[in-house]
Every structure is written in structure tokens, then in C-alpha cells.
Write a structure and sequence with these properties.
The structure is a single chain. The protein has 19 helices and no strands. It has helices at 5-19, 25-43, 64-80, 89-114, 124-134, 142-164, 171-181, 187-201, 208-231, 233-237, 241-246, 256-276, 281-284, 286-293, 295-314, 320-325, 329-346, 351-363, 375-378. The radius of gyration is 20 Å and the shape is globular.
């Protein structure tokens, strides 16, 4: 039986959107790695990283996956607001309105995920706040964005311990507030990753030289951050709790050298993924790229499936050890990869991405030509 013309047409459109010349497929690959890295960090028991012990190398996903995800949010914001040409005037106002509404919708979805009781720090509320904080920076070019990111990265880790110790976070009300603002990913520090990502997105990411520079410079910054932290660890441990909290590269610490090291790592990964997708490996990476082309759907799906699995089989969505012991990671990962691949090749844009874009278009209106961007940035 011949395939229906409508099905062929739809599949063709989906493929052109997924792998067309307008798409930065390396960004999809980086997002796919970030999403699956966060899933691994949640569902696997991982030993601390020891460089000469390969069995611990998976620890690279801890902390770095979520920071890569936040940095890629900045890349996407820059791409949907003109790429290397920052929006001005009415175009900037319209882009800001679209981002503000998108952030509000992400915040709502994030709070619903928090309410499932799954024992993870849901990143979407923090993601939404970062969207709001990005608005004053939409008109900046790459150099100024990198400068702003560097200033935040150097200054805010010294302030963060005082903010984190504030009485506002105490008690049940404080715990609820932490969930509402995503304080596990503290926005006063994490705006550095978003700004760095926006700086990356303001570059011409199709140029080989830019891709190579991101990989090399990001790698050098990461080596500096982790290297200084390692070299000074013994001395800092004797200097008191405040300096130990600041002068660290420990995952999820928001310490100075975590911000520098993991921020550099994120930039290097973006550059490396862009380089990889200049080679035939882009075809091997199609399943990961599919996950990265619909990151919101993939992220939400993993938590919803986890919640249903834990509620039905364990009777408690907060039972992390039970979920890990049940070996949910492998089937959930395979299911997400296969499902996203099938969806994106058959239908194109992820369902949640399409819904959010539809709401934004209806309320604010479509992006104008002056602030439109390649499809890769809009998902």
C-alpha cells in the first residue's frame, strides 16, 4: 500500500525542520546531552570523580549537566532575539514580552512538577526567573555579555553564602519559597551562565573558527577553575568555613571555582558539539539530537514518568532509593530517546514546545522578521 501523500509531506517537513540548513544541530546535541545528564545525575548512584578511575567518570554529569542546560538557555534566548544582531526598539520590546510570557509558562510547569513530590530539584522555576533576568541584557552584544557574565561569576560566589544563610529560607515556608524560586540553582549566581550563553548565541555559531574558539577557550577556563580549586584545596580547608564555601569547585556549591570551571565546561561542550555536527557523526547523534530538539518535553516527561512509576509500584513518589534500586534509569532513558526520535521525525516540534509557542503567539504575536531566528533556537 502506498504511503499517504499527507504523511509523506508531514514527514518531509519534520525532517527539514530537524536537519535543515537553517538549524544549528550542534545546539540540539548539546541540549540532548544536558537533559540525559540530568536524568543520570538523578537516577544513578555515582561515586565521586577520581581521574585515574574510569568507573567514576560518570560523575561528570553532577552539577555540570544543569549548568550546561542553563548556559544553553542563554544561547537560545540570544538566537530567538536576533542572533548576532541584538534587537532594537519595537523589536526588542516584542522579544522581551515573548520571553517574559515564555518564562511565566515555564514557571507554572515547573511548580506542577514540584508538586509531584519527585525528590529532585526541578530546574524550571529557576529557568523561568533567569528568563526574566535576561530582559535587561537583550540589547547587548557578545563582548558586553561575556563581560557581564565574568563580573557576576567573580563577585556573586562571595555574596551567595550570606544570601543562602538568610532567615527567609528557614522553616516550612522557607522550603516552599526555595521551590518557588528554584533556589537549588540560585539565580544571583546562575545568571552568569545565562549571560555567558547569551554571549555565545550572539556570535556567528556557523563559523568553524568560532566553534573551535569556544571549545578551546571554554576548555582552558574549565581547566583553570578546576585546577586552582584542586591545587589550593588543602590550604583553603584550614582557612575557615566561609572561604571553604566560596573557594570551591564542588558540584552544586555555587562556589567561585565551580562557576568558573563548570561555566567553561559548558561553553567548551557547546563548541565541541557544534564541531562534532560538522562531521558524519551528526547522523550517529540523531537520537541525542532528537532529545535536544524537544528538551522541555523530554525533561517534563522524565519527571512525570518517574512520578507515576514511583506512585504505582512503590506507593511513594519521594522514594529515591527505591526508584534507583528498581533500575528505572535505563528503560526511562531508552524510552525518552526512542520516543523523542520517533516524534521529531514524524511530527517535528515537541508537543510542549509547540503548546508554549502557540500560547505566546496568540497572546503576544509571532516574532517579527527582525527578531526571528533559526528553528534550533526556538525549541
Amino acid at each position: 500500500m502506498a504511503a499517504e501523500p499527507g504523511l509523506i509531506s508531514r514527514t518531509g517537513r519534520a525532517w527539514r525542520r530537524f536537519d535543515g540548513p537553517a538549524r544549528l544541530v550542534g545546539i540540539d546535541l548539546a541540549r540532548g546531552l544536558a537533559v540525559l545528564g540530568m536524568l543520570a545525575a538523578h537516577l544513578l548512584t555515582i561515586d565521586p570523580l577520581v581521574l585515574d578511575d574510569p568507573s567514576t567518570w560518570l560523575d561528570i554529569v553532577n552539577g555540570r549537566s544543569s549548568i550546561l542546560f542553563a548556559t544553553l538557555a542563554g544561547v537560545s534566548i540570544a538566537l530567538v532575539t536576533g542572533g548576532s544582531r541584538p534587537p532594537e526598539g519595537a523589536a526588542r520590546s516584542r522579544a522581551a514580552a515573548r520571553l517574559a510570557l515564555r518564562g511565566a509558562l515555564l514557571w507554572g510547569i515547573g511548580i506542577l512538577l514540584v508538586m509531584t513530590g519527585v525528590p529532585v530539584y526541578v530546574i524550571l522555576p529557576a529557568y523561568a526567573l533567569l528568563f526574566a533576568l535576561s530582559l535587561p541584557f537583550l540589547g547587548l552584544r557578545a563582548g558586553n555579555l561575556f563581560l557581564a557574565a565574568a563580573l557576576v561569576a567573580v563577585v556573586m560566589p562571595w555574596v551567595y553564602p550570606f544570601l543562602d544563610a538568610a532567615p527567609i529560607w528557614s522553616g516550612r515556608a522557607g522550603e516552599d519559597l526555595q521551590a518557588l524560586v528554584g533556589w537549588a540553582y540560585p539565580f544571583p549566581v546562575w545568571i552568569a551562565f545565562l549571560l555567558a550563553g547569551m554571549g555565545v548565541g550572539r556570535l556567528d555559531l556557523r563559523r568553524l573558527g568560532v566553534q573551535a574558539a569556544l571549545t578551546v577557550v571554554g576548555g582552558a577556563v574549565a581547566a583553570c577553575g578546576y585546577g586552582v580549586a584542586t591545587a589550593t584545596a588543602a590550604t583553603v580547608a584550614e582557612a575557615g568555613p566561609y572561604l571553604a564555601a566560596v573557594w570551591t569547585a564542588e558540584a552544586h556549591s555555587s562556589g567561585l571555582w565551580e562557576v568558573v570551571g563548570s561555566g567553561g565546561f559548558a561553553v567548551a561542550m557547546i563548541g565541541l558539539c557544534l564541531l562534532v555536527c560538522r562531521t558524519p557523526l551528526r547522523w550517529v547523534a540523531i537520537p541525542l539530537r532528537a532529545v535536544g530538539s524537544m528538551p522541555l518535553t523530554a525533561y517534563v516527561l522524565q519527571i512525570v514518568v518517574w512520578a507515576v512509576f514511583a506512585a504505582v509500584l512503590l506507593g511513594d513518589t519521594s522514594d529515591l532509593s527505591g526508584v534507583r534500586d528498581a533500575g528505572l534509569f535505563l528503560p526511562l532513558t531508552l524510552g525518552i530517546v526512542v520516543g523523542c526520535t520517533a516524534w521529531v521525525l514524524s511530527w517535528g516540534r515537541g508537543p510542549l514546545e509547540a503548546v508554549i509557542d502557540g500560547v505566546v503567539r496568540r497572546v503576544v504575536g509571532p516574532a517579527s522578521r527582525s527578531d526571528a531566528a533559526p528553528p534550533a533556537s526556538a525549541d
